[in-house]
Structures are given as C-alpha cells and as structure tokens.
Design goal:
This protein is an alpha+beta fold and 727 residues long. The strands form seven sheets. Strands 6, 7, 8, 9, 11, 12, 14, 15, 19 and 20 form a ten-stranded antiparallel sheet that branches. Bound molecules: (2R,3S,4R,5S)-2-(hydroxymethyl)piperidine-3,4,5-triol (DGJ).
Length: 727
C-alpha cells in the first residue's frame, strides 16, 4: 500500500521515498518530510514550538506554540500570518485578499485522477497507484481547496494538483494558485535550472540557494527558450552518483513561475505553477479552478538516478500508451537542406535517396502552402502551393511513399501572417488589444484561439490537410511569443484569464487532432525548443530540441535537457557542414554520435553528398535501428564531462547486460594526459566484453577505473563502444 493514514498523519510511500503530512493543531495541514523511505508515520516533532516575538498570530497562545509564519505547510494562503511567498491568493467576494486554509476532510482513491482539461500523468496500465485527496476549507468563507497527491510507487514519483472551489454565492477571483508547494526545513541545497535562449536552450545552471527568493518566471505565453518547467534541488556535493536530489516538473506549456524562498530561519519554500503576473481567474458559485499538475521525485543516489526516475515516469505515465514500445521512424527533414526553395522533384529525389539509405520518413518543412517563399506571408492559408507541388499533397505523399518512405508535413497552426487570405478575411482573429498597435514577431501574429470559432478553424484547417493525403507525421511549430493579449470573447473583468485560456485551447485543439488521427506522430516545435515541456509530451512523445544543430553545441543542450526529459523525446538530427548556426565543421561520425542520443534523423541535402558519405549514412541508419531499443528504452547515464573539452554518456539495458557508450573529444591540447570514463551503469557482478576491441572487464572495474581514453590528436573526434555481458 502506498498511502498510510493514522492519528491525523499521512505517509505516502514510493519504492524508495517517503512523503509525510500531518493535520496539526487548529487544522493546519503541515508538511513533515520528503526524502528516503522512513518508517514513522507521525513526524510532527520536526516543527517544535519555539518562542518568537513580533509574530502575528490568530490566537494568543500561538505566539508561544505555533507560528504559521515559519511552519512547513502543504498549501499556504496569502493574507494571514504567513508572510512568505504563498501558494494561493484569492480576491474574495468582499474584495479582501485573505484566506485561512484548514483541514476539512480527506479520502484515499485507487489509481490516478483526471486533471480536467489539462495534460496529466495517467496510470497507463500500472498497478499500485493511489491518490490522496485532502480537502481544505477557508475558515471564513465557502472556498475549498482540493489537494491531490498521486503516488506512483514504482517510479518514485508523486504528482500533485489542486482545485479551488467556490461554494459561496458571489464570484471570487483566483490571483495565484501554485500547483505544488514543498516546505523544506533546510535550505542547504543547490538550485538547478535549465536556462538559455533561442538556439541555446536548457543549459544547466547550478547555484547555491541563498536567503530571499530565487527562481524564474515566464510571461511570453508559452514555455519559452529562457526557462524550463523542470528544475531541481540537490545537496551541495551531489553529483551524478552521490547525494540527495529532488527533481520537479510542471506539466504545462504556458506562463510559469518557480519560486524558492529561503526565509529568516533558513527554511526553503518551493512553489511552482502558473505565473501569477497578470493572472486572475473568476470562479462563479459552485464552479472551480484547476491548477496544472506538477510532479516530483527524490533520489538519494545523485542527479543521475533523479533523471532516470523522471525519464521512466515520463515514458510510462506522460506519454500515451500508444507510444510506449513503438519504434518511431528515422526521418529526414528538408528545412536545412532547402529552406523555402523546393519543389516536387526535389522532395521526391530526397525521398528516393533517403529510402535507399534506410531513412524511413521524409518531412516537408515550411514553405509548401499559400504563397510562402519566405517567412513574410501565408500563415493561416493552409492550401497547397500547386506551382511548387503540382498535384498537391496527395501526389507528393504518393511520390514519396513509392520510394518506400513515409511522408510528414510542417504546419504552424496557431499563427496568421498579415499577408494572408485569412487575415484579409478576419483581421480581428489575430490577438490584439483594440486601439493598441500589435507587436509583430517573425512577421506574424498569433491567432486568438480562445475564441471558439478561431479554435474550430484551426482544428478544421489541420484536419483538412491531414485528411487530404497519406500524412503520418506532423511537425507542429510555433514561432513567436504572445503579446498584447486580449480576447473579444472575454469580458473586461476576465482578460486576466487570457494566457491560461490560450493554453487550454491549445490542449483542446491537440486533443481533437489526435482523437481524429490517432496514429499521427506529432513532433512539437517552437522556434526549436521553445515549448519543450511535459504538457506537450502528453499529446505526442517528440519535440524538436533546438534550432541549433551544431553537434558541438548540441552536447550541452542535450545533456541539459536530459536532466529532466527522456532521450527518446528529443529531436536530434545530423546536419550539414559548415553548420548553419555556427559555421563549425564537425566530422560526420561525430555529428552522428551526438544525434544518436535522441529521435535520430537528418537535416541536410543527402542528394548532394559523396558516395562515401552516403555509404556512411546507410551504416548509421542501420546502427541506430539495431540499437533503437537500448537508446530509447534503456537507462541513460551522464558520464565524464569537461565542458568544451570532452563529453561522454551511455545507455544501459534494464538488466545491465548491454551498455552503449559514446565519447566526444571536443578539443585536444598538446601532449595531454589520458582520461578515464567510469561507467556506473555496469553491474559489478558481470563480466563485459567490449565489442570493438574484444577487451574484457569486470563490471566493478568499469565502475571504479573505467575505460581509458588515450590522448588523441584532433578536435571533435568521437567514438562509441558496445559492452556486452559474457554469457
Ligand atoms: C522553426 C523551426 O524550429 C525550424 O526547424 C523550421 O521548421 C522553421 N521554424 C520553419 O519556419
């Protein structure tokens, strides 16, 4: 059993962790502990009574016994005696902003719970999943908060979300509602975020927590290139294999905010959820607001195990079962091969060469519709350009399929160009504040999908394209942020709902599309990796990681992304040299060794390569297919990494009998020493043979000495090694 209740205390157990909650004096629901498994159910002694003066309190005796201002709580509210950053802020019917949340009731539910209208973790056939629902009530009004904790025992994950319910007669407005609060009685941790910019997404940034509030917030309407919805905390000495590490994900694709407040006594409050900046949501009588889901894991064995818990959880409980054990196609995308300059003949010749090399899917990127010869026109006009593609999509898909290759297409359904028939017919469909100039981004505006008729147009337009030909893959792009948000469909008091409503509409659209086209593989994309989150992964298991296809730079991007996301969701392609983003020239085998660690594919003109290069690509495709299961379903380990100089990582089968190692020497100095790459993935009781050299090692030798990387002259050289346990 995963959830225990005794004498007002809850203990939520996963395979290796415990999460403790206590209904304490006055009905406050307190947080006790989160970490390695413990046996006690009641850990209420962790918040002892300490006399402190100058503290506001509800009752006289509280000053002496119990102060809500430094007590670890499960869900804190603004407006009372807790002066820290709080999880919930409500504008009550009387205009006040006070709430005082106390225990009302609880229930233990079998399985996971649906988060209405939002992506969420599901059981997906796994047993032993239980949900604890605790209901809190505001002491003075009929506002209730349902807190949900779903315990995924096998994967060491607890998922959480909250519902705010108004049973009062008049409307209230939620101004802030975090998805997850975790009050820790300690702040001696490092805070890890994945931060960056366009073409530099999700680089690991690690810094110690310090007094005050730290974190990040995003209000561009989408997840952003700058900050991720994933973050972590870990011991200061934690590394890949050692130390306590906590990983957190918000399952959301819009404005988000993560705050960690280290308060006066050194406690840390962690909050993550929808960004409250500009946010306000009306809840009418008997209605509710549902927060997005967040989930967290704990590892006592460093960041590596934290990542592996999250990888396994995302694959098993965020991805739809349809994608669990299905091999996704090895693809070629024509974007960097042709940009807008392509036609039927070019695409079919790419498909023909691709088919011969073992590539399984051709993706036609931007430029196939309307009058689109560059990025200034036609978004919204999802009608094929028959000058480029006579016979339309049907003929093209047929031509590609005849070469033994599947056909996929690019769309940017949420957008509208000023120079488009759609804009000429419906200029008011672009998001805008009446009377205010609209900011233009990449020459385009965003459609107001909050409006039902616009949402329906998008669903119909995408469906019509997909139904018109044999299209098995859709790259769903989104190339600008939201500005001047406002909807003609919302009253002036409800415009604060805009950003969240946009995301809800997007999810409804995606849901409608995958319901109509259940076999369609969608690769999400947003100017590269600008909407890379577990919300999008709920709809389809693949996201284009970054517009930076340079292998050297991809190492940091993919390594950073791997901290929170499984390898099998990261779009990763071999592109041309000199690289289009950096001008760097990297050997083909190194481009390949880096791109293997993701949903492998190509993004260059394979018809213009030499025969030798094409032969190498055919071998690469065969290699990837042979090792698909190990890479996509195996356990991933980040290994020796010296930024800018050397990087290594490996995949291990679940039984540890097979290990695939990749090493890249980015830079070499004169007369350097040897390096040793330790492989903690190896089982100490097994003896392995290295396929490439026939050298054998015991697992504990690989764990503790590792393999020797002799000094080699040359930059951006790389190799892979395959270790197999002896029978
Ligand atoms: C941005 C994407 O990230 C690219 O891969 C490409 O699809 C372009 N958009 C097309 O406009």
């Amino acid at each position: 059993m995963a959830i225990f209740f005794k004498d007002g205390c809850f203990k939520l157990d996963t395979k290796n962790t415990t999460y403790s909650i206590k209904i304490a004096d006055y009905g406050y629901v307190m947080h006790g502990y989160y970490g390695k498994t413990i046996s006690d159910i009641d850990v209420g002694y962790v918040y002892p009574a300490v006399k402190r003066s100058y503290v506001a309190s509800v009752k006289e005796d509280w000053d002496m016994m119990f102060r809500i201002n430094d007590a670890p709580q499960e869900y804190s509210a603004f407006g009372g005696a807790d002066f820290r950053t709080t999880a919930l802020r409500i504008k009550q019917a009387d205009g006040s902003r006070a709430a005082d949340l106390r225990y009302f009731s609880h229930e233990i539910i079998d399985g996971a719970v649906e988060v209405e209208g939002l992506p969420h973790a599901t059981e997906n056939g796994c047993e032993n999943i239980k949900t604890l629902k605790i209901i809190l009530k505001d002491a003075a009004t009929d506002v209730f908060v349902n807190m949900y904790y779903t315990v995924f025992e096998e994967t060491d994950v607890i998922a959480r979300f909250n519902e705010i319910i108004n049973k009062g007669e008049e409307s209230i407005f939620v101004e802030k509602a975090a998805s997850l609060q975790l009050d820790m009685q300690c702040s001696d941790y490092d805070f890890i975020t994945l931060a960056g910019a366009w073409a530099k997404e999700r680089h690991i940034k690690r810094r110690p927590l310090s007094v005050g509030t730290q974190g990040h917030s995003v209000h561009c309407g989408t997840t952003s290139h700058q900050f991720s919805t994933f973050f972590a905390l870990c011991d200061k000495n934690a590394d890949e294999n050692v130390g306590d590490a906590f990983g957190f994900h918000l399952v959301y694709s819009g404005n988000h905010k993560t705050e960690i407040e280290v308060e006066q006594f050194g406690n840390a409050r962690i909050l993550t959820g929808i960004n409250d900046e500009g946010f306000s949501w009306e809840i009418k009588q008997n209605d509710k607001f549902t927060t997005p889901e967040a989930f967290m894991t704990f590892s006592g064995e460093g960041l590596g195990q934290m990542s592996r818990n999250l990888h396994e959880f995302i694959i098993r409980h965020i991805f739809r079962p349809k994608w669990h054990n299905v091999r996704r196609p090895l693809l070629i995308n024509n974007w960097e091969a042709t940009y807008f300059d392509f036609n039927y003949e070019k695409l079919v010749s790419l498909a023909e060469t691709a088919g011969k090399l073992g590539i399984e899917l051709l993706v036609m990127d931007d430029g196939w519709f309307g009058k689109r010869e560059d990025d200034r026109t036609s978004l919204g006009d999802w009608v094929v350009n028959t000058e480029k593609l006579p016979g339309g999509l049907e003929r093209l898909a047929k031509g590609v399929n005849e070469k033994g290759v599947k056909f996929g297409i690019w769309m940017e359904p949420e957008m509208i160009s000023e120079d488009s028939d759609l804009y000429r017919a419906h200029p008011d469909w672009a998001i805008a504040v009446p009377g205010r100039e609209k900011t233009i981004g990449r020459n385009q505006y965003v459609l107001d999908i909050v409006r039902d008729e616009v949402k329906q147009y998008v669903i119909d337009a995408v469906s019509c394209v997909l139904a018109g030909a044999n299209i098995e893959y859709l790259k769903w792009d989104m190339n600008r942020y939201l500005t001047e948000v406002y909807s003609l469909s919302l009253s002036k008091d409800n415009q604060g709902e805009y950003f969240h409503r946009y995301v809800l509409s997007l999810y409804q659209i995606l849901d409608a599309i995958i319901t109509k086209f259940p076999d369609l593989l969608i690769e999400h994309c947003s100017g590269g990796g600008g909407r890379f989150d577990t919300g999008m992964l709920y709809y389809s298991p693949q996201i284009w990681t970054s517009d930076d296809t340079d292998a050297h730079e991809r190492i940091e991007i993919q390594r950073g992304t791997s901290l929170g996301f499984p390898i099998t969701c990261m779009g990763s392609h071999v592109s041309a040299v000199p690289n289009h983003q950096t001008g760097r020239v990297t050997p083909l085998d190194t481009r390949e060794n880096v791109a293997y660690s993701g949903t492998f594919g190509y993004e260059l003109d394979i018809t213009a390569l030499t025969d030798d290069e094409r032969a190498a690509i055919a071998e690469q495709c065969a290699f990837y297919k042979e090792n698909y299961n190990l890479i996509n379903n195996g356990d991933y380990y980040r290994l020796l990494h010296i930024p800018g100089e050397f990087s290594s990582w490996c995949f291990a089968s679940k039984d540890k009998k097979e290990i695939l190692l990749f090493c890249v020497q980015l830079q070499s100095g004169a007369n350097d020493g040897n390096k040793f790459v330790k492989i903690p993935a190896a089982d100490k009781n097994l003896r392995y043979e290295e396929a490439e050299t026939n050298q054998t090692y015991f697992g504990d030798t690989l764990n503790n000495i590792g393999i020797c990387i002799p000094y080699e002259f040359g930059e951006r050289t790389s190799f892979s090694r395959h270790f197999k346990a002896e029978k």
